[in-house]
Amino acid sequence: MPITNTKQKADGQIESHRKLTERVHAAGGKIAAQIYHAGRETSSAVTGVQPVAPSAVREPSMPETPRELTIPEIHTLVEQFGDCAKRAKAAGFDAVEVHGAHGYLAGAFASPFSNKRSDEYGGTIRNRARFGMEIIRNIKEKCGKDYPVLYRISSVEYVPGGLDIEESKVIARLMEEAGADCIHCSQGVYASTHTIIPPSVFLRAGYVEHAAEMKKAVQIPVIAVGRINDVEIAESVLQSKKADLVTMARASLADPELPNKVLKGRGDEVIRCIGCLHGCIGENGKGNGIRCLVNPLTGMEDEYDLTPAEKAKQVLVIGGGIAGCEATISAALKGHKVTLIEKK
What we know:
By secondary structure, this protein is an alpha/beta fold.
């Protein structure tokens, strides 16, 4: 649900998003819309205009210096966030998450790494958190106090002069004060991207201690994230009480059926994320869309027809290499009876 100055165009997206939410609800699920403004973590090559930010300070990994937002522009953006959430609710989303992590606009205001202002939106922690707090309050005013609003935060930014865990705990409390119903505890900014999306060399669930610290600061639920890529690890985090919920984004790209397989006692069939970043980050960064190295169906669902065949056949696959195994899986998913033969 993009934030846009063209209200009619944005309202025109409600029906298409409703088709998505209706499918999720029909399957018994819940769905939230993540709403954000990229701030200085983008470029004019993407947006067509100069990026904007709390201050005219270039993000080290980006090619151009942003323009500093005026106070009237900040007020307009707060209203636009609220309008965006209102459209999300109208489209059937069960909640919205304000993305205030990874150096995006709300997070950039909160961080001394990117916010050098000396007015009411800069300086003290409360002033730096003001933009995010105003967004949450605006959403609650337009969507109702009972409409769930999550707030995503980078608990540690891993850059000189960036947020540390103690400052982030204060910001989380301020977001709770403003009306946030849940804190999604992430980490990093674009200049420390390896912490946002930890690769295979990083410890699995390696940032859970940040979530545990957040839980000490707020009374609302806290979500942990970061290489939580199998159910056993996820369950261990929950059992430890270090977080109330976990997110498993890349694990779900590797195998969207992960929860169903585990519930049905088929955990050994789960296609596991290996943390390679080649498909989900590499291909997407090239403009090719999201793919997955261990699941060729990811991002190609329209190209592959896996609806059951009208008539099941006997299929023989010779060769148990990667191609042979994938052919076997695909044929079996179509309902065929498959025999796989390997010489060794």
